[in-house]
Amino acid sequence: MSTTEIFLLAMLLIFSIPYLIWRLGRTDYWAPLVVVQIITGILLGPGVMGAAFPDYYAFVFNPTVIQTLNGIAWWAVMIFVMIAGIELDLVAAWEHRRESTITAGMALGTPLLFGCVAAFGMLAYDGWIGPKGMTWQFILGVGMACAVTALPILILLMEKLEVLRQPIGQRILRYASLDDVAIWGVLALILLDWTRVGRQIGFLISFAIAAWLLRKLMRAIPERDRWYVGLIWLAICGFAADWAGLHFMVGAFLAGAVMDAHWFDQAEMDLMRHHVLLAIMPVFFLSTGLKTNWAVGGTAVFIAAAVLLVASVSGKMIGVHIAGKVLKWGKGEASIIGWLLQTKALIMIIFANILLDKGIITNETFTALLLMAIASTMLTVPVVSPRLRAMKEIIFRSQ
Question: Exposure string (b/e) for 113-137, b if CB count within 10 Å is 16 or more?
Fold first, then answer.
């Protein structure tokens, strides 16, 4: 077969297998399509299909095909992260700054602490810290991975649960928006390279000036041109951030964060996110699966994933319940908010991908974090749905 034919065979696997599992298995309640796509990426990776059918795996996912898939995956995830940045509602968070700051701080800080403790324990064993990772980078990186909330997937799940446009949904978006800013700020700190500090300072100064000019331009041009200009801006920011040593994903997030959501039609933005998820993000999920590895032993990876899951879930729930006590929330609100903020999936996978690319974590740590992200996201809808029904019944009886 030619390289083109093998590439198209890989694309056939990427798009058909997850869809058939999701549709025929009717997994949507506990595993949305995006989760099925991530799991399929793991199954098609070297740890499962590569081990079971090494010759077939080497034939389909040869270096040339993988390089092509990686290029598509990079652009897909850059667009997705930019949209996440655009959707940040920092104005609303500022208007409710006491409540938002307390909740976001506890929802991020407590699982971060728990995750750092778990990471410190992992350091007692070989095979987890990457070849270029310093101890503090590994501990902070894994800890932050436990604290991440995936804003884009959170929006999708809240739409599914019919709470996105309700007051509680808007509150959760405010908390998640503040946490997203903190997450990318911590990532920039982890990636700070003192040998390139001049480049990084130059990037930040140039970015501030360019962002000011972009905002003036975006207000002046018609709405139909804004997405195209936004994509040009995305490529510029991604290239500049990577050149400065901060990774192109940091640039993608900054590209979106300086743009206002009201510049774009909300329905068109939802459609754009949907099309990116449908048409090109599955390639990113597969390329993620290709990075999984069980070299330290399958049992050890699953144990690490379980420990990280406990740290993540317990830390998030404890932090949000403390915030609920301080802010005197109603009965059941803290549980609903805590579980929805527990959603990780894409943003944590992107975060872990960057740590892996920079050599801070190993493929084994990446695999454990990936399993943790899948489990926490799969728990969200089954756990939250009955709690929402109970809350609605309480409200109905009180009226």
Answer: bbbbebbeebeeeebbbbeebeeeb
- Per the DSSP assignment, residues forming a β-bridge with 361 are 129
Count Cβ neighbours within 10 Å for each residue of 28-52 and write b for 16 or more, e otherwise: eeebbbbbbbbbbbbebbbbebbee
- Indicate the DSSP class of residue 30: T
pLDDT tens, position by position, 282-304: 888 877 777 776 666 678 889 99
DSSP 8-state assignment for residue 264: S
Residue 292 near residue 43 (C-beta atoms within 8 A): no
Distance CA 170, CA 340 (A): 12
Q: Is the pTM of this model over 0.85?
A: no
Query: Which residues of the chain have a pLDDT value below 70?
Result: 193-195, 293-297, 392-399
Q: Is 162 in a helix, a strand, or coil?
A: coil
Amino acid at 381: V
Phi, psi of 4 (to 5 degrees): -60, -45
Q: Please state, in angstroms and rounded to a whole number, the distance separating the CA atoms of residues 23 and 20.
A: 5
End-to-end CA distance of the chain: 68
Give the model confidence (pLDDT) of 182-202 as tens digits.
Answer: 888 888 888 876 667 788 888
